Amino acid sequence: MNQASLYERANQVQRHDAKIILEEYATILQWRSDGQDSLLDVGSGPGNVLMDFVHPLLPKGYQQLVGTDVSNKMVGYANKCYESYARTQFQVLDIGCDRLPDHLKGRFDHVTSFYCLHWVQNLRAALGNIYSLLRNEGGDCLLVFLASNPVFEVYKVLHANKKWAHYMQDVDQFISPLHYSTNPVEQFTQLLSEAGFIHHNVELRSEVFVYEGVNTLKDNVKAICPFLERIPSKQHEEFLDDFVDVVIAMNLQQDLVQDHNNDRLQQRFISPYKLIVAYARKSPDFLRNMLSEMGIKKSSKGLE
Ligand SMILES: C[S@@+](CC[C@H](N)C(=O)[O-])C[C@H]1O[C@@H](n2cnc3c(N)ncnc32)[C@H](O)[C@@H]1O
Ligand SMILES: CC(C)=CCC/C(C)=C/CC/C(C)=C/C(=O)O
Description:
Blueprint: H1 4-9, H2 12-25, E1 38-42, H3 48-54, E2 64-69, H4 72-81, E3 88-92, E4 110-114, H5 123-133, E5 139-148, H6 150-159, H7 184-195, E6 199-212, H8 214-224, H9 236-249, E7 253-259, E8 264-282, H10 285-294
Parallel strand pairs: 1-2, 1-4, 2-3, 4-5
Antiparallel strand pairs: 5-8, 6-8, 7-8
Helix pairs in contact: 5-7, 6-9
The protein binds S-adenosylmethionine and the ligand CC(C)=CCC/C(C)=C/CC/C(C)=C/C(=O)O.
């Protein structure tokens, strides 16, 4: 997904979830007593979730806010939109990379990420990198991403259709690594522990979003579907129609409802999905060494 402005216009679900979760976690995040926090966001896309919901939580004198994304286009767009913000910038970063750039290592008090990690197949590498981004004196992270979503099943069905198979050969790269997990909480908790996090709390939230009208659904698909940019544009509408047919075949269409804007009947689509909401803290080096020498896993504030 590269089309920043398209995504920015069709990310109601992502914005809704980030807003609610940040309201809950605003006081759990461990803000510095000197108000000089540094925060890095992973997979910021066009930057509006970061700037609308995370930026207002930072203390006025924050040290730096870094939005990152694997997409050059997203980073360019976000830098243009938010160039007037002091101590704020967007950079290209692949969170699943083998070698984290040295200038980012150990520099941040907080790492946040919304709706990105389901795009990253190598969660082990991503969590190792998130751990390394945090300061050695300690820091915390709030990671929100899709464990499962019907969109991934729709991709599988379209991939089996020979009309689209050619464009979707790598379909598995775009399915959340936890989509088929029998216990996503346990699996992600294990990955956090392996990355070095001692205190963590992982929740699986079951949510439902209702798309009012076929155009709303199609706009949301256009904003995130990685296959469309490979398909000739004259076939986009056909692909989207096939997408909607699969959704209907999966019984995700609700009864027709009255559209108050034009008095016509319109379709409604329901999307039941599961979100991982994970909060984890990196302990200061001295404490971690002490605890590991003692073979102790410490509990604090209800965290594991
Ligand atoms: C659905 S958007 C989320 C954007 C924003 N965080 C939000 O909540 O609206 C996912 C973003 O993750 C980015 N992304 C995908 N894989 C990534 C990776 N390996 N490293 C960093 N960003 C990645 C995509 O380019 C995209 O901009
Ligand atoms: C009813 C149905 C299948 C809806 C799917 C809607 C949709 C476009 C979900 C996208 C999920 C996703 C991968 C979001 C993202 O990364 O931002």
